[in-house]
Amino acid sequence: MFISALYTAILALLIIYLSIVVILSRRKNKIAFADGGINELIVARSAHANATEYIPITLLLMFGLEFNGGHGVLLHLFGVLFVLGRVVHAQGILKEDIRSRIVGMQLTFSVIIGLALASMTYILMYLFSA
């Protein structure tokens, strides 16, 4: 379970970075909570929220695949592509670049679907080999 733990740590740092972007925007705009209708803060909160929506389920899928004997190379492939997708997407939101957002979500969805299918495959292989 060391591979999934590595990507959990990397993605935790991404969430912290996005949290800091929100905090700095709140301080700059003197907003105590929510977004105050300030576009900069709306965008920052959106980037943070999106990360916290997709990262947990993907990490659960990674841990499950690793626990069920998923190959290390496969896990690293999914991990690298997911981190890349999340970084590209977050920067796309922060810079309001729709193309980056699309690419980031395509990578994100591809990894989630790939992890789900790989997990089901490993589970079925286990069930039919027992």
Number of DSSP-assigned strands = 0
- CATH level-two architecture: Up-down Bundle
Unreliable residue runs: none
Helical amount = over 70%
Radius of gyration from CA coordinates: 17 Å
CATH fold assignment: Four Helix Bundle (Hemerythrin (Met), subunit A)
Taking all residues together, what is the mean pLDDT?
96
How does the overall form come out from the CA principal axes?
elongated
Contiguous helical run count:
4
The CATH superfamily is Membrane associated eicosanoid/glutathione metabolism-like domain
Number of domains: 1
Tell me the name of the CATH class: Mainly Alpha
Order of SSEs, N→C? HHHH
> How large a portion of the residues is in β-strands, by DSSP E?
under 5%
**Distance N terminus to C terminus?**
23 Å
Structural class: mainly alpha
Task: Explain the overall architecture.
This protein is 86% helix and 0% strand. By secondary structure, it is an all-alpha fold. It has one domain (2-129): Membrane associated eicosanoid/glutathione metabolism-like domain (Four Helix Bundle (Hemerythrin (Met), subunit A), Up-down Bundle), CATH 1.20.120.550. Helix 1 packs parallel to helix 3. The longest helix has 32 residues, at 98-129. The mean pLDDT is 96.
